[in-house]
Design goal:
The protein is built from eight helices and eleven strands. With 278 residues, the chain is α/β, with parallel strands linked by helices. The strands form three sheets. A seven-stranded mixed sheet has the order 7-6-5-8-9-11-10. The structure holds S-adenosylmethionine.
């Protein structure tokens, strides 16, 4: 199946025989210059008046396609709403260091580096890395122009060696559509514990998530043992759907002091109502 043929109603059947729906977003358009090369998609970044170009390889599996929650984070980055979500909680007086978990095609991490001028590490499983590297290279100009950097690293959740290589020197961890198979809940939570719990440093995990199954409550229940979890943004449901993408903020329980006057990145967080809704 080529990228241009993916529709919101397309279904991927996973190894557990569950059905997941990745889909291309209403925020994202195909450029006519992409005709004839259907694996490439241009994502227009309004704030930079430029495109991020992403190669999707749908026939290779779910890690090679753009998922709905990624497009929500992309929009929050482009509109700079994410700035106020971040600075509401912590004041950072240095360039942001961002780690993305389960990056897939890399759209979110690449856009974050370009838009925020951040130093970003995009990560995923070994077999996903070549396409991730391809997309990072394809966007070197827009990322460099925004003053950001992106590096790629292999990180299988829960793999201690890989976690130590990637380290925990980040201000913000991001992830989109990373809660789907229940066997991944524990490794993801262990990775988040490594990154967020302990130490003096203040860090947060921003997770964009589209609810698909009731069982996902198990993930949130486990997560709330170690993290304060808040809803920081809700997207409206896309056509025919009951729920939209929700963005959650996770903070290690001992690091949850709010500094509401922090405005390093600008913006007015009061517009975004915080809810305990998980
Ligand atoms: C549903 S896709 C979402 C991809 C991307 N974040 C997006 O929103 O478009 C889930 C991603 O998590 C990655 N993933 C799955 N299991 C993983 C694991 N154990 N460790 C690290 N990444 C994993 C997959 O390779 C895939 O890229």
């Amino acid at each position: 199946m080529s990228t241009s043929e993916i529709q919101p109603q397309d279904i991927i059947t996973t190894t557990n025989n569950e059905q997941i729906q990745p889909f291309t977003s209403q925020h994202i358009t195909n450029s006519s210059s992409d005709v004839g090369n259907p694996d490439f998609r241009r994502h227009y970044v309004k704030s930079l008046k430029n495109d991020v170009i992403i190669r999707q390889l749908p026939s290779e599996g779910l890690s090679f396609q753009l998922w709905p929650a990624a497009t929500t984070l992309f929009s929050l980055l482009d509109s700079h709403k994410i700035d106020s979500i971040i600075s509401h909680h912590y004041k950072f007086n240095h360039r942001l260091r961002i780690l993305e978990l389960g990056s897939g095609t890399g759209l979110v991490g690449i856009a974050a580096a370009a838009i925020l001028g951040a130093d970003v590490t995009v990560t995923d499983l070994a077999h996903v890395i070549p396409n991730l590297k391809f997309n990072v290279s394809a966007n070197a100009q827009i990322v460099g122009g925004g003053g950001g950097t992106v590096v790629t690293a292999e990180l299988s959740w829960g793999n201690v060696e890989q976690m130590e290589v990637v380290g925990k020197e980040y201000d913000v961890i991001m992830g989109s559509d990373v809660v789907y198979h229940d066997h991944l809940y524990e490794p993801l939570i262990n990775t988040l514990k490594y990154l967020l719990v302990g130490g003096e440093r203040k860090r947060m995990f921003l997770m964009a998530h589209l609810k698909r199954w009731k069982k996902e409550a198990v993930f949130f229940k486990k997560a709330k043992k170690f993290f304060e979890v808040d809803v920081v943004y809700r997207d409206s449901p896309s056509d025919g759907k009951r729920v939209g993408v929700i963005v959650y903020r996770f903070v290690g329980k001992q690091c949850s002091t709010t500094t509401s006057s922090s405005t390093t990145l600008g913006g007015n967080f009061s517009k975004l109502k915080l809810e305990n809704d998980v």
